[in-house]
Amino acid sequence: MHLGYDLLFLVPGQTGGREIYAQELLKAMRAADPSLRITTFVNAETREAGAGFWTEAADRCVVLPRVRVCSRPVWAVGELAALPHVAQRAGIDLLHAPANLIPPWGGFTRVLTLHDLMFRRHPHLLSPAMRWGTEAMLPLGARRADLLLTGSAVAREEIVAELGIPEERIVVVHHGIGGLTAPGDATRGRALAGDPERPIAFALGSDLPHKNMGAVLDGVAALAPPERPRLVIAGQRTDGSGLRERAGALGLGDEDVRLLGAVTSAEVEDLYAAADVFVVTTRHEGFGLTVLEAMTRGVPVVCSDIPVLHEVAEQHAVFVDQESGSSIAGGIRTVLSDVARRGRMREGGRSHAARFSWDAAARASLAAFERALASAP
């Protein structure tokens, strides 16, 4: 099979969970089937970043130099109009688009990974331009794709309900979780947190509306000293004025909260190693990768009481109302106040997360590609 891999969405280091998924799946597919021919398609920003998984896991990397993510209209034209021509000239058998959007036409089989339909389920969480642009591009590509992949049964139900795509054309492939190649150092993590003594609550993700990071502040603020842990929030845009102002309005000072912003992968591992509890207050996900990342590292998880996180975490997390500071506070208190339960959560979470692997995700995806090729006209 000659696989084309659509990475026109990618801005390395800035594309969040979609980037992790695209990277880990591509590397795992290469390892699972060394005979696979892979051509990646990248934009100008990715080319400027130099080498990366888009070159290292591929036989060939094709650059569309006029396509730039920073200009959404230019990017859209590249995705919808230029990519089909370029991919066809490259001689691919199948194009896989790992990030929600795929050209609705082309002389090759098309498989789309559709992570979620937040633009339909929670439209108020997106800007009007993003919502309208997604509405214009996503449904047509999804309906015309030969097969869809998605990360959870919950996401498949959303796709069926919102887009009317038959369930048999949607394959659920759970995401994987990588092993720990370089475990973090708790001492360094506590230094990053700025407090070597207090319990640490850790939250990781972008400060985007659906990630609901401000709710973590609400939960910690609802805990009075000495129950209140040291809260560390890291990720894109998490050192900005919005979270800082909210923390101040809640009476949380520098002694309570550390807003780190973007951090390196090594610093993330150090923070996991130092954390006593990991807190996720997202409003919507297609899967919930950070929940499994924390479990793999033995960190007890407090997370949103939403269906997809129940599917991913099962009984190994404490579920809370993500819109209620008192509920979030109660979840944190439950974990931090019960040493025995915390130990059970650490061990149970590790065992549960071990069930998810990128190798399994790669093999299931490759099987889906073969199915799509066999059934294509």
Major sheet description: 7 strands, parallel
Overall mean confidence score, pLDDT: 93
Tell me the strand percentage band: 15-25%
- Please mark out the parts with pLDDT under 50 across 5 or more consecutive residues, or reply none: none
**What structural class do helix, strand and pairing data support?**
alpha/beta
Domain count: the total is: 2
Return Rg in Å: 21 Å
Percent of residues in helices:
40-55%
**Neighbour order of strands in the largest sheet:** 3-2-1-4-5-6-7
Q: Fill in the CATH topology of the largest domain.
A: Rossmann fold
Number of helices: 16
Q: Oligomeric status of the shown chains?
A: single chain
CATH class of the largest domain: Alpha Beta
Describe the overall structure.
The chain contains 16 helices and 13 strands. The protein is α/β, with parallel strands linked by helices and 377 residues long. β8, α9 and β9 form a beta-alpha-beta unit. α8 packs across α11. It is globular and about 65 Å long. The protein starts with a strand and ends with a helix. The mean pLDDT is 93.
Structure in a nutshell:
With 377 residues, this protein is an alpha/beta fold. Helices cover 46% and strands 15% of the residues.
SSE order and pairing:
Layout: E1 2-7, H1 16-32, E2 37-42, H2 44-48, H3 53-56, E3 60-63, H4 72-90, E4 94-97, E5 109-113, H5 118-121, H6 128-144, E6 147-150, H7 153-163, E7 170-172, H8 186-193, E8 200-204, H9 214-221, E9 230-234, H10 241-249, E10 257-261, H11 265-274, E11 277-280, H12 289-296, E12 301-304, H13 307-313, E13 318-320, H14 325-337, H15 339-353, H16 358-375
Parallel strand pairs: 1-2, 1-4, 2-3, 4-5, 5-6, 6-7, 8-9, 8-11, 9-10, 11-12, 12-13
Helix pairs in contact: 1-16, 8-11, 9-14, 12-15
